[in-house]
Write a structure and sequence with these properties.
Strand content: under 5%
Distance between the termini: 49 Å
Largest sheet: none
Low-confidence stretches: 152-157
Structural class: mainly alpha
């Protein structure tokens, strides 16, 4: 039976994956316009923070997409050993998304003309910051309560192999009377 954290984390993982792909598309388009010097395009604009914001939005989206692959493997297996990879990559993706979030806030604070594509990109990065944090908390919920997280409790798992025949387990010697 699936656990509560797993049931909530799976749709959130898919939503974040789609949103990271959208951020990747918009940030790539905006960065291409910025490099070509077409900042006077009606749907672009920008200010002094734009280049930094676009760079970190691209980096956050690529890291977020890669972390969702590890997260998908963890949700499929839902074990403690897959949690390490999913948790580490999700934490790094959230940290870089948090930097992009700060730069989006700075870009909004500076103001000036920002086209609709930049405003959508800012909104998606701000939303992703919070949904990625929620996803990160959900996959780590099992550390505090086994009901919500990886619940594999087999004591023989990870103990290494033995050279004995698995069909014939050794018996305990009977004490002499």
């Amino acid at each position: 039976m699936a656990t509560v954290g797993r049931n909530i984390a799976a749709p959130l993982l898919f939503l974040n994956l789609i949103m990271y792909f959208i951020v990747l598309g918009f940030a790539s388009w905006c960065l291409n316009r910025f490099i070509n010097g077409q900042t006077h395009h009606p749907s672009f604009g920008g200010n002094g923070a734009t280049m930094f914001f676009l760079t970190f939005a691209l980096l956050a989206s690529v890291l977020g997409i890669v972390s969702k692959f590890a997260g998908g493997n963890h949700i499929r297996a839902w074990r403690n050993d897959s949690l390490a990879a999913a948790g580490a990559t999700s934490l790094i993706a959230w940290a870089v998304t948090l930097i992009a979030f700060g730069l989006a806030c700075k870009q909004i604070n500076i103001g000036g003309h920002r086209g609709w594509r930049l405003r959508i990109l800012e909104a998606f990065v701000i939303i992703l910051t919070f949904t990625q944090l929620l996803y990160l908390l959900l996959i780590h919920a099992g550390l505090f309560n086994s009901r919500y997280g990886p619940g594999y409790r087999d004591t023989d798992y990870g103990m290494g192999g033995t050279t004995a025949d698995p069909m014939h387990k050794p018996t305990v010697a009977q004490p002499r009377v």
